[in-house]
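[Meeting: bench + compute handoff]

Bench side (C.D.) handed over the final construct sequence. Compute side (W.E.) agreed to return the predicted structure before the next meeting so the bench team could plan truncations. Sequence as handed over:
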Amino acid sequence: MDTIEIPLSKKKIILAILGSLLFVFIGIDFIRNTATYASWRASKEAIIISGISSVLFFGTCAIIATKKLLSRQIGLVIDKNCFIDKSSAASLGEVLWKDVEAITSYSIVNQQFIGVELKHPEKYINTQTSLFKRKLMLLNYRMTGMPSHISANTLMISHAELLKLMKKHFNLYNQTLKVEA
């Protein structure tokens, strides 16, 4: 079976950067014009906290997306033994098919994800050298039972095509194991 390389989508990443920057500017406006937004529903403190949170979160998203945009890395590589995910800030990197329990699909707030259920997720979490990435994976793991998720949002492929491809390779690997046994 051939190796499949799915590049990062520069167009999708640029849209993510623009969206993130929009929320950064909205957050800055909340901070600068607190009195305008404060009302009987929200205190000045709540508006300031919302503004700071927006700037920090979406500013981080914009930085990460800009790094992806400037990267020459392939977003996702799939072959008969593993897949290598470099599509997001919390991507696992190389994952051996033998460590995968299941491939699932789910959505959160209209965002679709490919869930990669691992037999030993802590093995992949603990090998991360970046503290930020490790903490992000731990947060993902606590919320969903999976340390990382793959989204077609930054890849040049649709969610449906990506899910089909991931399941196909996972099933082929498992069928090869049964034949060899």
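W.E. noted at the follow-up: The mean pLDDT is 90. C.D. will use this when planning the next construct.
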